[in-house]
């Protein structure tokens, strides 16, 4: 017997290094008419490097102490930023203390107890203006309860502390993460990630396939987002998004009648992957949750495989009668 078109398409997708989870998933890929893309780990390599370490003068920490402290809190995290911080600390030969009570908050950062003190590493508005006893947890709670707070712009977040402003200015389009100890800001780290070489061609291909340039949805700061958007020809850029903001953006586009293909890699992307008409996860550095939630997984880590499988699906659907 000849193989049904959608099953042959799944086999072909496999040759492109994409694991499509079902015939229905294969079919839906070809129905999409708009792509929404995550930035970090999707359009970029997802292998950032620490490019700046800035302890606050009052913190009593030098660069190594700040980096070591952040690395200790980040050691259990699977986030690309966490891995970069740990790698940078190891490259400097720093001792990384074993953390306790580790908690990761998707799209925001991490908290842990390091040598008896509570350490937070993450977004400015999450760790800032919380110079209270249990600062970090209070920050998380506040951001969750007041939505406007969670979507506060980078300027607003940076204004609340001089260090943030300096780190942002010095590293213009870098990702800046803030470090607190016992709720008090002690410094910031700047990280930069390289664009995937295939990113501009892939966004152009997705634009050709859908007739609309993809939308960029990222949890990172606006400047880092704009840098990537400019390099990939995208104009609809939404930055500083929390995981729930990414889902809302996808839902909003779908409520407006679009069938959205969402491509992402992180735990923070899982809700958007689930909400989208079709969700594709980048597999190499992808979090387990993203891989489980997605309709398809790009196992070979080639971004060009995404438009390729959309084409395979369209061809297969024409053959299904
Ligand atoms: P993206 O949408 O670009 O993939 P995320 O949603 O994973 O990014 O993260 C958004 C922001 O939250 C990061 O730019 C960073 O400021 C902060 N963040 C998330 N996880 C961590 C972490 N493990 N350590 C430090 N900061 C983090
Ligand atoms: Mg990501």
Automatic annotation (TrEMBL):
<protein>
    <submittedName>
        <fullName>Heavy metal translocating P-type ATPase</fullName>
    </submittedName>
</protein>
<feature type="region of interest" description="Disordered">
    <location>
        <begin position="143"/>
        <end position="169"/>
    </location>
</feature>
<comment type="similarity">
    <text>Belongs to the cation transport ATPase (P-type) (TC 3.A.3) family. Type IB subfamily.</text>
</comment>
């Amino acid at each position: 017997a000849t193989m049904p078109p959608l099953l042959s398409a799944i086999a072909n997708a496999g040759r492109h290094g994409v694991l499509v989870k079902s015939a229905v998933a294969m079919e839906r890929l070809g129905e999409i008419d708009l792509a929404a893309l995550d930035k970090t780990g999707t359009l970029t390599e997802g292998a950032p490097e620490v490019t700046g370490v800035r302890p606050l003068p009052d913190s009593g920490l030098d660069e190594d102490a700040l980096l070591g402290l952040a690395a200790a809190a980040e050691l259990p995290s699977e986030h690309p930023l966490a891995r970069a911080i740990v790698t940078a600390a190891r490259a400097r030969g720093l001792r990384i203390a074993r953390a306790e009570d580790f908690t990761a908050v998707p799209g925001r950062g991490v908290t842990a107890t390091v040598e008896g003190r509570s350490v937070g590493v993450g977004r400015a508005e999450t760790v800032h203006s919380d110079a209270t006893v249990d600062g970090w947890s209070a920050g998380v709670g506040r951001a969750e309860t007041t939505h406007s707070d969670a979507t506060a712009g980078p300027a607003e977040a940076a204004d609340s502390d001089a260090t943030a402003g300096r780190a942002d200015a010095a590293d213009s389009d870098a990702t800046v993460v803030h470090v607190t100890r016992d709720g008090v800001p002690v410094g910031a780290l700047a990280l930069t990630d390289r664009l995937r070489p295939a990113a501009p061609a892939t966004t152009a291909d997705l634009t050709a396939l859908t007739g609309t340039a993809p939308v960029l949805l990222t949890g990172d700061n606006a400047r880092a987002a704009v840098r990537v958007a400019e390099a990939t020809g995208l104009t609809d850029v939404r930055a500083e998004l929390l995981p729930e903001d990414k889902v809302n953006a996808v839902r909003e586009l779908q409520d407006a009648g679009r069938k959205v293909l969402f491509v992402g890699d992180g735990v923070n992307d899982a809700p958007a992957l689930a909400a989208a008409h079709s969700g594709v996860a980048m597999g190499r550095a992808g979090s387990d949750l993203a891989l489980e939630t997605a309709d398809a997984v790009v196992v070979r880590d080639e971004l060009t495989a995404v438009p390729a499988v959309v084409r395979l699906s369209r061809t297969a659907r024409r053959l299904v009668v």
